[in-house]
Every structure is written in C-alpha cells, then in structure tokens.
Write a structure and sequence with these properties.
The protein has about 260 residues and is of the alpha/beta class. About 20% of the residues lie in helices and about 35% in strands. It folds into 3 domains: about 90 residues, Translation factors (Elongation Factor Tu (Ef-tu), domain 3), CATH 2.40.30; about 120 residues, Rossmann fold; about 45 residues, Dihydroorotate dehydrogenase B (pyrk subunit), domain 3, CATH 2.10.240. It is globular, with a radius of gyration of 18 Å. It binds flavin-adenine dinucleotide and FE2/S2 (inorganic) cluster.
C-alpha cells in the first residue's frame, strides 16, 4: 500500500506549531472527524515509531488534508523540517472518530492545546444547526486557527490560562456558563486529561452525552502492542482498551479517566 504523499504546503502557525497540507485522495475521502494518521519521521536520530497525529481538516474536492503539529520532542522536530514538495510517509485514516448524529441539534466542541485540532473537521462536518466551540490556550501567543474555527461554528469562545486573550481561566469554566445560558445536546472534548475528566463530570451534571478523544502515547498505532491502553467500563467492572483501535474517541460514559 502506498503511504507516501506529497506535502503541498508547510507553514508555521506560531513559534512551535506548524501545519502541513498533504495531497492524498485516499485519506481525504475516507477520513472522518476525530480519526488519526501515523507518520514516519525518518531514519534520522533513531525515531523508529510512527507518531500519531489527528486529522485537522480535509478538502475532499481537492483531495488534500491538513495536520497541525506541535514540536514536543525528537519526532515532531524532524517533521518540522519538512517543506512543500517533500514526500512524507503517512498511514491512515486510523481509529474511531466522533459520532455525527443528526438528532444532535446543538453541539459544543471543547478543546485545549493540541486537542483543538481534531475538532475543526468535526465542526465542519457535523449536521447540527447550532455549533459552538470553546478553545483553551496557555496565552495569547499560543492562539491558533482562530479564523478557521470561527468560520466552522456559530459561536466561538476562547480562553487563556493567563487572560492575555479571550476569557481568563479554563475551558470548563466557560463551558458551564455557556451550558447555563443555552444547554447543548452533545459535547465533544479533546485536550489534557484533567480537562477531559472535568468535562465528563460537567456533562453528567447537565445530563448531556459526550465523547472524548484520548491522546494516549502510542507504539504501533495499529492494535499490535499494548502501549496505548486506557481504562473503559465493562458492566460492573473495567478493562483495558487499545486507544489506537477502539479510539481515540470514546463515549464519556464508557471511559475511565484516572
Ligand atoms: C490520538 C492522538 C492524536 C494526536 N494528535 C496530535 C495532533 O493533532 N497534533 C500534535 O501536535 N500532536 C498530536 N498528538 C501528540 C503527538 O503524537 C506527540 O506529541 C508526538 O508523538 C510526540 O513525538 P516526539 O517524538 O516529538 O516526542 P517524544 O520525544 O516522543 O516525547 C516528547 C514529550 O512529549 C510527550 N508526549 C509524547 N506523546 C504524547 C502524547 N500522546 N500525549 C501527551 N504527551 C506526549 C512526552 O511525554 C515527552 O515529554 C496526538 C497524540 C495522539 C495519541
Ligand atoms: S499503539 Fe500499539 S496497540 Fe495501540
């Protein structure tokens, strides 16, 4: 199977996060919001394992898709050196994405940091009439893709930890205020674990279903190892579940976030 695709555009969104637009009929046509790709970083520096990255946005007509990547360590540093015209080795789309049910008329997508990326295509594709997004960043310089999110939803709320842009505080504080004013019938979360844990509790408080996207560290990315497991409920008990195969998106009432 061909996994090598051409990069059409490579640009920085801020000091440590870059966006790649990749040409692939296959991935752009098949990808569903919340699914991921795994990327080979190259042989440089002994980075053997593919790195999992969310599909941020797709253009099904042009046959392209976007991924946004924050530099964290060796692998993402290597990926940051790719330029327009280069070939990149990408496998996907993989995993289970978000549920897009027409019965949900009012949705809110809540994301923090790199967790905002899979929410963009979710908002673009979801058939709901009323779509809101609440995005959280550390500070003003970290705020990215604002215009793209604004265009994909009816109302966008931004918060920063230090109040340097938008509301000061956490996305979960904004979520409560927004839910008090106009309750949604479905919530989608992606971000740091404490944020998603609190988010699931808030969803329960408001008796609203939710889904969370788990950004667990991965090994093989295809269900062949056990690096990516998380805890999920099983009747009165719990079990380990592979995030790469059964996730990364899970129902809020199935997942156990420790
Ligand atoms: C389902 C999923 C979707 C993801 N989507 C995106 C995305 O759209 N954009 C993006 O920039 N990143 C995303 N990530 C995270 C990305 O995969 C990691 O940042 C990347 O693998 C780090 O590789 P590295 O070699 O640069 O860093 P490493 O050298 O492997 O690690 C550097 C640092 O990053 C931390 N780290 C590594 N992986 C993770 C992780 N999964 N979660 C939290 N911390 C981690 C390590 O603990 C370490 O401190 C996603 C991860 C998963 C599992
Ligand atoms: S990363 Fe190997 S099973 Fe999920």
């Amino acid at each position: 199977m061909n996994t090598r695709y051409r990069i059409l555009k490579a640009e920085y969104l801020n000091v440590d996060t870059f966006l790649l637009t990749v040409q692939s009929e296959l991935i752009s046509k098949k990808a569903r919001p919340g699914q991921i790709v795994t990327i080979k970083c190259g042989d440089e520096g002994g980075v053997i394992l593919r790195r999992p990255i969310s599909i941020c946005s797709v253009d099904r007509e042009k046959g392209t898709f976007d991924i946004a990547i924050q530099i964290r360590g060796k692998g993402t540093k290597i990926l940051s050196k790719f330029k327009a015209g280069d070939m990149i080795d990408i496998m996907g789309p993989l995993g289970q994405g978000f549920s897009l049910y027409p019965k949900h008329k009012k949705i809110i997508a809540i994301g923090g940091g790199i967790g905002i990326f899979p929410l963009l295509q979710l908002l673009k594709d979801h058939p709901a009439e009323n779509k809101k997004a609440i995005l959280g960043f550390r500070n003003k310089s970290c705020v990215i893709l604002e215009e793209e999110f604004r265009q994909a939803c009816n109302e966008l709320f931004i918060s920063t930890d230090d109040g340097s842009y938008g509301d000061k505080g956490f996305v979960t504080d904004t979520l409560k205020k927004v839910m008090d004013k106009e309750p949604a019938d479905m919530l989608f979360f992606c971000g740091p674990l404490p944020m998603m844990k609190l988010g699931v509790e808030i969803a329960k408080e408001y008796n609203t279903p939710c889904e969370v996207s788990m950004e667990q560290r991965m090994g093989c990315g295809i269900g062949a190892c056990l690096v990516c497991v998380c805890k999920t409920k099983k009747e009165d008990d719990w079990e380990y579940t592979q995030v790469c195969k059964m996730g990364p998106v899970f129902s809020g009432d199935k997942i156990i976030i420790d």
